[in-house]
Specification:
The protein has 11 helices and 12 strands. The radius of gyration is 20 Å and the shape is globular. The protein has 2 domains: 98 residues, Malate/L-lactate/L-sulpholactate dehydrogenase, four-helix barrel (Hypothetical Oxidoreductase Yiak, Chain: A, domain 1); 189 residues, Ribosomal Protein S8, Chain: A, domain 1. It is of the alpha+beta class. Helix 4 runs parallel beside helix 5. The model has no long low-confidence stretch (mean pLDDT 95).
């Protein structure tokens, strides 16, 4: 397999914005979406990175996502909550608006919770939880997704991978960022393995009969393995109840896959920001988080393994790639250059 090509951040940024604007998006919106894609690349979450750009644009071209969405906040009964009607717009734009609103509400009431209805795939969930952490708040985000996990004891995919993320700020140390789907791995990783004709570990996916498989195509036709068995299956259902059902966007199992061009995806999200200052001095809290990090890292490691906090490896990779560049697999470069040809634009 060919080695990845190393690109400077600015090169990828300019390419992505160029493609999105030529597809009809405003520069401001294109910049937000591009920022989320590069966030994924920087943190080595390739499944949600620039590989998604052709699919997002295809959804715009096919009219199954509203690139001119008029997103509006609905009037709520209580002041500390909100709901954004995304008008079937891009999920990244809805997520950015919703978390900003949750942060603004939290500044007033100590906590802000905003749901989003009628949205689309929003990329890496931790992009949004970290928005709150950067404001000395604790951020919590969840989203539903298309059927990928069979409820425990069954073999029919119904539940989504339904990611959950929590970001907690630290003072000197790196923020603690938990970002997890309810499956052993994100389905995007299996898609990449299929694209590269590579086998997957047997604990990633199940075939249509519910048996473990190392064939990524069989796993994509079957279901994903939930984390912790019944626990992951149960958590996935809870996320669905707090997103799709709470926003009256769709019932469990009705979200469309990002590659399904038959209509709106019916995705929904939940954003929570908790203002630490309402409980204690934010700096004091962050110092305590640092102490917790130090306590964990002072423990005796198992074997020769280094001890990492949640999100630390991704943050280390991010800092490294900011200076050294971002590696992009040749298969992804080829897909992006096909897109560039269609829009008569410069290739990567």
């Amino acid at each position: 397999m060919d080695k990845p090509i190393i690109y400077e951040m600015e090169t990828l940024k300019e390419f992505s914005i160029d493609m999105l604007t030529k597809a009809g998006m405003s520069v401001q919106d294109a910049e937000i979406i591009t920022d989320t894609l590069l966030f994924a690349e920087l943190r080595n979450i390739k499944s949600h990175g620039i590989v998604r750009l052709p699919t997002y644009i295809q959804r715009m071209e096919n009219g199954v996502v509203n690139q001119n969405a008029e997103m509006k906040f609905k009037k709520m009964k209580a002041p500390a909550v909100g709901m954004l009607d995304a008008d079937n717009g891009m999920g990244q734009l809805a997520g950015y608006k919703a978390m900003q609103e949750a942060i603004n509400i939290a500044r007033i009431y100590g906590i802000g919770m905003v749901t989003v209805k009628d949205s689309n795939h929003f990329g890496v969930a931790s992009y949004f939880s970290m928005m709150a952490a950067e404001k000395d708040m604790i951020g919590l985000v969840m989203t539903n997704a298309s059927p990928a996990i069979a409820p425990f004891g069954t073999k029919t995919p119904l539940l989504g991978t339904n990611p959950l993320t929590v970001a907690v700020p630290a003072k000197v140390g790196k923020p603690i960022v938990l970002d997890m789907s309810m499956s052993t791995v994100a389905r995007g990783k299996i898609r990449i393995s299929a694209m590269q004709n590579k086998e997957i570990p047997a604990d990633w996916g199940l075939d249509k009969d519910g048996n473990p498989t190392t064939d990524p195509n069989e796993a994509l036709e079957g279901s994903l393995v939930p984390i912790g068995g019944v626990k992951g299956s149960g958590l996935s259902l809870i996320v669905d109840l707090m997103t799709g059902l709470l926003t009256k966007t769709c019932m469990t199992g009705e979200v469309k896959n990002i590659t399904d061009m038959s209509g709106p995806s019916k995705t929904s999200h939940l954003f929570i920001a908790i203002d630490i200052e309402n409980f204690m001095d934010a700096d004091e809290y962050k110092e305590d988080v640092d102490k917790t990090i130090e306590k964990v890292k002072s423990l005796t490691p198992k074997g020769d393994n280094d001890i990492y906090m949640a999100g630390e490896i991704e943050q280390n990779v991010m800092e490294d790639r900011m200076s050294k560049g971002v590696p992009v697999d040749m298969e992804v470069v080829d897909k992006l250059n096909i897109l560039a040809d269609r829009y008569e634009s410069s290739k990567l």
